[in-house]
């Protein structure tokens, strides 16, 4: 019996400790970019959805932007189509575009909406085609239907937020002539967060954040200012698939997002640790050389 009383007290203390952070985020926009391993692992997926609903319940205006690369590959495989990549981007012919649209705007989007509803949230799914949310042009002829975002028509998202919903957005866009395009999920999240003037953009990835030494998880760099980025690229600390991710972080900050965090989607409840504790999780980018204390800047 005694033991239980203790854990309840501890629980209460945890909640009180979270209070200043809750006050800070309530009513503010947080965009979560979600994909990769955290999406494939069923238990993690459930936890991410719980975290999002919890944030929503304490008044955070949460927007979920999702990818779905592995599921696209799976369906292409079933249909006997071979994925092709040029410089890390998926070559997308018309048939592949159909598959991308089915998987992202259809299956994954509605599955996530349904999960959020099952956890007690109110969610509505959109794609970048809805309300012309993500208007784009051809990024590179060699890639086919891969889009470069030209304009963000953010109103459908703000309308949903104002009505108390969690918008769940798949990153399929269209051009002026109505052609559908596959858009890089990280880039789309950066543009959407910028258009919303988000307080924080959280990029969930399959790594711990930015490590000084890739082999050493304890060498996590908790904070990086934009001035330090080029240096870290030169030193090879940021390399390979991390470069486009980090460039998306820089894009988001340039578009007015206050904080961008690259965090480990494989860690249970990493979103809550980042937003509601003084610990933080992952690497946080800010635009100035003076790193501000976590959470306490407006």
Describe the protein's architecture and organization.
With 298 residues, this protein is an alpha/beta fold. The chain has a single domain, classed as Acetylglutamate kinase-like (Carbamate kinase, 3-Layer(aba) Sandwich). Helix content is 43%, strand content 21%. α7 runs parallel beside α9. The radius of gyration is 19 Å and the shape is globular.
End-to-end distance, in Å? 43 Å
Second CATH tier, the architecture: 3-Layer(aba) Sandwich
Name the structural class. Answer: alpha/beta
Largest sheet: 8 strands, mixed
Strand order of the largest sheet: 5-8-2-1-11-13-14-12
Unreliable residue runs: 289-298
Per-chain topology:
Elements: H1 2-25, E1 29-34, H2 37-40, H3 42-57, E2 61-66, H4 69-78, E3 85-86, E4 89-90, H5 94-118, E5 123-127, E6 134-138, E7 147-152, H6 155-162, E8 166-170, E9 172-174, E10 180-182, H7 185-196, E11 200-205, E12 223-225, H8 226-234, H9 242-254, E13 259-264, H10 270-276, E14 283-286
Parallel strand pairs: 1-2, 1-11, 2-8, 5-8, 11-13, 12-14
Antiparallel strand pairs: 3-4, 6-7, 9-10, 13-14
Summarize the structure.
This protein is an alpha/beta fold. It is 43% helix and 21% strand. The chain has an eight-stranded mixed sheet with strand order 5-8-2-1-11-13-14-12, with helices on both faces. A two-stranded antiparallel sheet has the order 3-4.
Jot down its keywords:
298 residues; alpha/beta; Carbamate kinase; 8-stranded mixed β-sheet; two-stranded antiparallel sheet; 10 helices; 14 strands; 43% helix
